[in-house]
TrEMBL record:
GO terms for molecular function: isomerase activity. This is Xylose isomerase domain protein TIM barrel. Keywords: Isomerase. PANTHER family: HYDROXYPYRUVATE ISOMERASE (PTHR12110), XYLOSE ISOMERASE-LIKE TIM BARREL DOMAIN-CONTAINING PROTEIN (PTHR12110:SF21). Gene3D superfamilies: Divalent-metal-dependent TIM barrel enzymes (3.20.20.150). SUPFAM superfamilies: Xylose isomerase-like. Residues 32-284 form the Xylose isomerase-like TIM barrel domain.
Length: 305
């Protein structure tokens, strides 16, 4: 098999896996090019990638579209739910702008994470009402809202809590984001995923880290924001394997994005970091899920029996 054919096969095998710009340093165009060169076909973008572009938002959008990478999703709307009065109105305005940026990028998913605000109510009906409102704002733009429970969230800090309010909100474009880091940080059992509709999981974010326990909310935050590594590089490979296999068994066929905040990676050459991500994607696709593409022209992955 030629080198080009091997590379093409690998690209097809990892088609469901993508990088997040937060793992890479440098200009947006350089990060997009590194991700594409590593064989990925999708990218997770953050608002700062767009508004921080030196030539402005239009230039950033043009760069993303020119890259040929599909946008996995757009992040992140914080502290939206559970507020009242002028605080709620303020967050609605912010949400509208995030939705418009997501639409401009061609992103079909906007990530929203559970509130950490001391001003937010923990009342489930209030949270569900606010998430329903957010989803309805996004609906005319063809955007789905993926709600993620932060492990240091004030009222909701496990995916089981997030699923409870998503179910209660009962909106066609409101679903879950599952982040392996937060699942491991809280020790939430994977068996609870059996109560989640896999069609309502809009995004799965994967990362590992280098120690077993996260004893305090502050340690969870510090590790999450500075010390994550790619799947298979840390001490939670077995847990990551179990999570990915569980999701696959339940019927999840959506995207996996590597959300790897790592200060060291921000100081390293882009091709080196992107290659580490590629190695991780190949481990998951071919080693864990045992997916392979037997024919060069086949674009969709399938589980090998």
């Amino acid at each position: 098999m030629t080198r080009d054919l091997l590379a093409a096969t690998a690209r097809q095998n990892i088609a469901d896996f993508g990088m997040d710009t937060i793992s890479l340093a440098g200009p947006l165009e350089a990060r997009l090019a590194a991700v594409k060169a590593a064989g990925f076909s999708q990218i997770m973008l953050a608002a700062r990638d767009i508004v921080g572009h030196p030539q402005g938002i239009d230039a950033a959008v043009a760069a993303v579209r020119a890259s040929g990478l599909r946008v996995t999703g757009f992040q992140v709307l914080r502290d939206f739910e559970g507020l009242s009065g002028h605080l709620h109105g303020y967050k609605v305005d912010i949400a509208k702008q995030m939705i418009l940026m997501a639409r401009a990028l061609g992103a079909e998913v906007l990530l929203a994470c559970s509130s950490t605000s001391e001003h937010a109510s923990g009342e489930v009906d209030t949270i569900a009402r606010d998430l329903r409102k957010l989803a309805m704002l996004a609906l005319p733009h063809g955007i789905r809202i993926a709600f993620e429970a932060l492990s240091w969230g004030r009222h909701l800090n496990e995916y089981t809590h997030a699923w409870q309010v998503v179910e209660r909100a009962d909106c066609p474009n409101l679903g879950l984001a599952i982040d392996s880091y937060h699942v491991f940080a809280t020790g939430t059992p994977l068996d609870a995923l059996e109560r989640v509709d896999p069609a309502k999981i809009y995004l799965v974010q994967l990362a590992d880290f280098m120690w077993q326990e996260l004893r305090t909310p502050q340690e969870r935050m510090d590790t999450a924001r500075h010390f994550r590594v790619f799947p298979g590089e840390g001490v939670h490979s077995q847990a990551l394997t179990a999570l990915v296999l569980k999701l696959d068994q339940l019927g999840y066929r959506g995207d996996y994005s590597f959300e790897v905040f790592n200060d060291d990676y921000q100081q390293l050459p882009l091709p080196y970091v992107a290659q580490r991500a590629r190695d991780s994607a190949l481990w998951l696709a071919e080693g864990v899920l045992r997916r392979s593409v037997p024919l060069p022209g086949r674009m969709r992955l399938r589980q090998q029996g």
